[in-house]
């Protein structure tokens, strides 16, 4: 049996998120240790990424706005 070719878009979402984190959050810097990385990542995602950053895939709404709109429709 020959292995199937992998889909080149399988990792596209992950690579996009990593790229966004590097450019918007790290801005060329790095973390001093794992605890610092976990703390900063959590703070970035919960206080900015989900509440302030607008996403084109969500019709230029934040994930929090999208979820609230979705919940209110149901």
Automatic annotation (TrEMBL):
<feature type="domain" description="Integrase catalytic">
    <location>
        <begin position="8"/>
        <end position="63"/>
    </location>
</feature>
<dbReference type="InterPro" id="IPR001584">
    <property type="entry name" value="Integrase_cat-core"/>
</dbReference>
<protein>
    <submittedName>
        <fullName>Integrase core domain-containing protein</fullName>
    </submittedName>
</protein>
<dbReference type="InterPro" id="IPR012337">
    <property type="entry name" value="RNaseH-like_sf"/>
</dbReference>
<dbReference type="InterPro" id="IPR050900">
    <property type="entry name" value="Transposase_IS3/IS150/IS904"/>
</dbReference>
<dbReference type="Pfam" id="PF13683">
    <property type="entry name" value="rve_3"/>
</dbReference>
């Amino acid at each position: 049996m020959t292995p199937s070719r992998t889909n080149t878009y399988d990792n596209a979402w992950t690579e996009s998120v990593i790229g966004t984190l590097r450019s918007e959050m790290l801005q060329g810097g790095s973390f001093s240790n794992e605890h610092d990385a976990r703390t900063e990542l959590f703070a970035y995602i919960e206080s900015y990424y989900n509440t302030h950053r607008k996403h084109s895939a969500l019709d230029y709404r934040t994930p929090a706005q999208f979820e609230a709109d979705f919940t209110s429709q149901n």
